[in-house]
Amino acid sequence: MHYRGIFHRDLFSELERLQREFDGSPSIRGAAPGYPAMNVGTTSKSVEVSAFAPDMTPEEFDVQVENGVLAISGERKNIVPPEGATIHIGEHFSGHFRRVVSLPDDIEPNSTTASYRDGVLHVCVARREAAQSRRISVQ
């Protein structure tokens, strides 16, 4: 005896069909969490943070280091579409944002630098000299 399932096709074919339908529809996720996207890395001399935030100016960022935490905040303005235009998918983030990164214990907060170029905010937090590895010569 052959039983017919809920779907006329096998389950995996139906899932693939549903995925194709969702791929073609406008996003329903809303604003993506974690704006701006960031890369965080370390070298022997510093902690390097790159925040990807196009269409902003250096004055629109607030960068602070306090109690071992780097905080990057600001506001990204809304892009107004041309008159008569209809937006079908809107994924451009606008509004206030704040990203926080815990820093290692060996940082030197007074030696922090920040620059903004080509849509990327780059923050460099120096590490203390004592924390950097040194080669010790053996006598």
Count of individual helical segments: 1
Distance between the termini: 88 Å
Write down the domain tally. 1
**Per CATH, which architecture?**
Sandwich
* Gross morphology: flat
Beta strands, count: 7
- Flag low-confidence runs: 25-32
Description:
With 139 residues, the chain is mainly β. It has a single domain (34-131), classed as Sandwich (Immunoglobulin-like), CATH 2.60.40. The chain has 1 helix and 7 strands, in the order αβββββββ. The chain has one helix spanning 11-23; strands spanning 37-42, 46-52, 61-66, 69-76, 95-102, 113-117, 120-126. The strands form 2 sheets. The chain has a 4-stranded antiparallel beta sheet, with no helix packed on it. A 3-stranded antiparallel beta sheet has the order 3-4-5, with no helix packed on it.
In short:
The protein is mostly beta strands and 139 residues long.
Strand and helix map with partners:
Blueprint: H1 11-23, E1 37-42, E2 46-52, E3 61-66, E4 69-76, E5 95-102, E6 113-117, E7 120-126
Antiparallel strand pairs: 1-2, 2-7, 3-4, 4-5, 6-7
